[in-house]
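User: Just a sanity check before I run the rest of the batch. Below are the structure tokens for the first item. I only need the designed sequence back.
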């Protein structure tokens, strides 16, 4: 089962991680690697957000509902201004 992208409530983020109101940056990733990059960033302790939308596709025998990425090749994440971006930029799949 693929990873479900979920963005916690902003109050939940401040309570759990203490991030406050940092600017969000768009991180360009390899095509169809949003899930992989998000998993690795979570392992490194970063918060991330990948917006999804649901679509229905008609197959010959059924209708299938898929979750698709709203902005292909982008992963959004808040970064502290004084934080070095080196660990983020060296993540596999980041362009």
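Assistant: Here's the designed sequence for the first item:
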């Amino acid at each position: 089962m693929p990873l479900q992208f979920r963005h916690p409530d902003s109050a939940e983020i401040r309570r759990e991680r203490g991030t406050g109101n940092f600017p969000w940056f768009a991180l360009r990733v390899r095509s169809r690697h949003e899930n992989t990059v998000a998993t690795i960033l979570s392992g490194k302790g970063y918060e991330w957000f990948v917006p999804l939308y649901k679509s229905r596709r008609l197959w010959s025998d059924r209708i299938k509902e898929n979750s698709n990425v709203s902005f292909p090749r982008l992963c959004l994440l808040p970064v502290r201004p004084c934080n070095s971006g080196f660990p983020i930029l060296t993540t596999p799949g980041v362009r």
